[in-house]
Amino acid sequence: MPYDTRELFARLIQCEAGGEGITGMMAVATVIMNRADATVGEFARVSQGGNVRNIILQENQFTCLKEVVGGVYNSQNIYNMSPTDEHFEIVDWALNGGRLSDVGESLFFYSPKGGDCLAFFPTKVGVIYNRIGDHCFYIPTVFYEET
Question: Taking the alpha carbons of 95, 99, 105, 106 in that order, is the dihedral positive or negative?
Answer without folding.
Answer: negative
